[in-house]
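Progress against Task 2.4 (sequence-to-structure conversion) is shown through the following example record, which the project officer requested during the mid-term review.
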Amino acid sequence: MSINLSLLPPGEKNKIELDKQASFLIWKLREAKATPDEIDQQATKILDEQEKAWFLQSVEKYKRVMGVA
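Structure tokens generated for the chain above:
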């Protein structure tokens, strides 16, 4: 079954984008191409509190998955 992401409502698209950003930041952190400060900087740019919570939850998920402390 395939899902066309472009057909999702804007809120769902944004959640996917925030999840991708979190994944990429943790990968950069694991590869020593970023610092933990970059995660904080990205989080402060997110104005909506629910979106910020989603982003930080994704950060924690990818830290566990990628074994980053």
